[in-house]
Amino acid sequence: MARPAAVLCLLLALLGAGSVAAAAWSAEDAEAEPASAGGPRPPSPKPSPPSPRPPPPPPSNARAWGANGFGQLGNGEIGDSAQDVVIVSGSLQFTSVVVGGYHVCGLEGGGAAYCWGKNMDGLVPILGVGEEFNGVVPQPSPVLGGHTFAALAAGVDFTLGLLANGSLLAWGSNNCGQLGVGDTDPRSVPTPVATDATFTGASAGNGFACAMRADTRTPMCWGRGDRGQVGDGAAVDRLVPTSVNLTDVRPSNKTFLSLTSGDRHTCMLHAPTYAVYCWGDNLARQSAQFGVNLVPVPKQAWSGDWQCSALAAGYEHGCCLQYSRDFPAEVGLVRCWGSNEYGALGLGTTSTTPVHFPEDPVAGGRTYSAISATNYAGHTCALEAGTGLAYCWGISFSRQVGGGLADSVYSVPTPADPQNRTFAAVVAGGEQTVSLVA
Ligand SMILES: *[C@@H]1O[C@H](CO)[C@@H](O)[C@H](O)[C@H]1NC(C)=O
Ligand SMILES: *[C@@H]1O[C@H](CO)[C@@H](O)[C@H](O)[C@H]1NC(C)=O
Ligand SMILES: *[C@@H]1O[C@H](CO)[C@@H](O)[C@H](O)[C@H]1NC(C)=O
Ligand SMILES: *[C@@H]1O[C@H](CO)[C@@H](O)[C@H](O)[C@H]1NC(C)=O
Predict the structure, then answer these.
(1) Is the pLDDT of residue 12 over 90?
(2) Predicted structure pTM score
(3) CA 255 – ligand 3 centroid, Å
(4) Which domain holds residue 70?
């Protein structure tokens, strides 16, 4: 009982909402007053009129489960939680969250960014929230610089923030040039990416990142390139945004809708056809090509009767939210490809033989409205269409699949929240999952 209250007050104090914290304590004091025993009351001095007490703010709409070694569950604690699902500290109402390897960031309605989780790369703070946190930030803390963001993307130990005018900022670790700022020094505050281009979206992987140009709707990538992550055909690191080579994209209309990056690969949706193109590492067939171990420039993943309305690139896998012009009954099935060693494909099996073509949808027959896969471990989560229930599958060493056991593998979609809450978003990252209640 005392512990959550202390955590709440700590957070409120950090947010500068001291009066609200005082109100909460007064309410507790009032409860402790002895009940009137009846009989004539002794005259008591008139108390000074109570200061107005605003109702306590509602808790944050963010819920989290999984690993918490760096406070990435955001509930004020560090270390694995005994609870299945924890409430992120404070009363921020997030409109979106992104989950990196060991950290989480969210945008509240006005576009202000908050991050929590692992904060140190050597001596440099990487969450963009300052360094007064001893390396670990176990509750949402405001990102420095006062920017208003339209979207965020979280990689392993770094973060990208897209401004409403399309300019991109980056902060965090930069050992491979993943911030796109022209060098390999980490940045402790949001820093402009070194390009004149403006973007409509961004994705971040492990040591590299990509973004979709606003003018041409074509991708640029930067950072680690040893496995073809940059997509320019060169397989070397790039310190500034570099155009992805679209020579092998056959349609003449080479415009794209969205990007998603896994550990060492990226996939994107072709705008006119909803076909999938991937590049990067293919050792686990995560770039959906047969017979090659590296895909240096984007190649079409498969051609078939069905397309995708959304993609999620995972650690060594990818998943597609199916959209089929010809098979409306299949809209919303999820199909995954790549490594199935830890059940990432949701097929009810595990296998060391990777899959380049997602012949079967994930088990269970449900249809989903959203998917998300982690770029740093191996789980995937999806929201069931209609109900908003969260299901996850894959590796669950830190209970990131939710509800169940640690050190387990769930090879079929498994209910993530024992309370069956309706979620508006569920986001998988690292060994944790963060969701927003509807
Ligand atoms: C977008 O806004 C930021 C902040 O006001 C500014 O620094 C940047 O130059 C703008 N970008 C463009 C493309 O206008
Ligand atoms: C793009 O890739 C194609 C084939 O993969 C290659 O022939 C071409 O030289 C590349 N273009 C650039 C600008 O690197
Ligand atoms: C390319 O495809 C997009 C999406 O279908 C469409 O909006 C655009 O007009 C097309 N551009 C050309 C030049 O055909
Ligand atoms: C959640 O749903 C499952 C499956 O329908 C059911 O067994 C369980 O009792 C539900 N839990 C709650 C708290 O309603």
Answers:
(1) no
(2) 0.88
(3) 7
(4) 57-196
